[in-house]
């Protein structure tokens, strides 16, 4: 039987109890980039609890992802200041342009878009973070320019 990284994370925890469900899921996501259905099943078996409970907890908290992050990660702020400055328009534009699936990953497998409550840069709303870099006072046109630069960089590197 193959020992998976998730098996190792579970095995490393002494005195495993159901109270450790959330920290366990956090550690798995930190290591694996997401909490996969297989990982949820392993956790359920280890905690001797129904997988539906693990799934219920994991989906209740929006900190958990169920698909791995792609090469480029875009965090779209949906906090109040950004909302007032039309961040929804930016999110909708990204969904159309990148053909996002329900899990936030683009159809071409290159981008992941996640929404966050506040990026802590309200004075330059609306804000996104693209691969860790802040971009503020965004418009759809500026967003397209940023994405075009990413594409140009990828083309130059190919
Ligand atoms: S609400 Fe968007 S950075 Fe604070």
Give the helices and strands, then pairings.
Blueprint (H helix, E strand, L loop, with lengths): L4 H7 L9 H12 L4 H11 L3 H10 L11 E6 L2 H5 L2 H11 L13 E6 L11 E3 L2 E3 L4 H18 L1
Parallel strand pairs: 1-2
Antiparallel strand pairs: 1-3, 3-4
The structure holds FE2/S2 (inorganic) cluster.
Explained architecture:
This protein is an alpha+beta fold. It folds into 2 domains: 5-60, no CATH class; 72-157, Glutaredoxin. Helix content is 47%, strand content 11%. The protein has 7 helices and 4 strands, in the order ααααβααβββα. A 4-stranded mixed β-sheet has the order 2-1-3-4, with helices on one face. Strand 3 and strand 4 form a beta hairpin. Helix 1 (5-11) packs antiparallel against helix 2 (21-32), helix 2 (21-32) runs antiparallel to helix 3 (37-47) and helix 3 (37-47) crosses helix 4. The relative contact order is 0.11. The model has no long low-confidence stretch (mean pLDDT 93). The structure holds FE2/S2 (inorganic) cluster. FE2/S2 (inorganic) cluster binds next to helix 5. FE2/S2 (inorganic) cluster is lined by residues 77, 79-82, 118-122, 125, 127.
Counted beta strands: 4
Q: List the secondary-structure elements in sequence, H or E.
A: HHHHEHHEEEH
The total of helices stands at: 7
User: Which small compounds were modeled alongside the protein?
Assistant: FE2/S2 (inorganic) cluster
Largest β-sheet summary: 4 strands, mixed
CATH homologous superfamily assignment of the largest domain: Glutaredoxin
Residues in helix, %: 40-55%
Q: Over all CA atoms, what is the radius of gyration?
A: 18 Å
| Assembly type | single chain
Number of domains: 2
CATH architecture classification of the largest domain? 3-Layer(aba) Sandwich
End-to-end Cα distance, whole Å, is 40 Å
Beta-strand percentage range: 5-15%
> Could you name the ranges where pLDDT drops below 50 across 5 or more consecutive residues?
none
CATH class of the largest domain: Alpha Beta
Structural class: alpha+beta
Q: Provide the residue-averaged pLDDT.
A: 93
């Amino acid at each position: 039987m193959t020992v998976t990284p998730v098996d190792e994370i579970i095995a490393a925890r002494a005195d495993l109890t159901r109270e450790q469900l959330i920290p366990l899921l956090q550690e798995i996501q930190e290591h694996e980039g997401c909490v996969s259905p297989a990982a949820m099943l392993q956790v359920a078996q280890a905690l001797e609890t129904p997988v539906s409970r693990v799934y219920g907890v994991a989906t209740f908290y929006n900190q958990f992802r169920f698909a791995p992050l792609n090469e480029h990660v875009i965090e779209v702020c949906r906090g109040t200041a950004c909302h007032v400055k039309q961040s929804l328009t930016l999110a909708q534009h990204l969904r159309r342009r990148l053909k996002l699936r329900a899990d936030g990953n683009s159809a071409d497998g290159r981008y992941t878009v996640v929404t966050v409550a506040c990026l802590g840069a309200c004075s330059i709303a609306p804000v996104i973070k693209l691969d860790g870099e802040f971009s503020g006072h965004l418009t759809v046109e500026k967003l397209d320019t940023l994405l075009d630069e990413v594409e140009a960089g990828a083309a130059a590197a190919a």
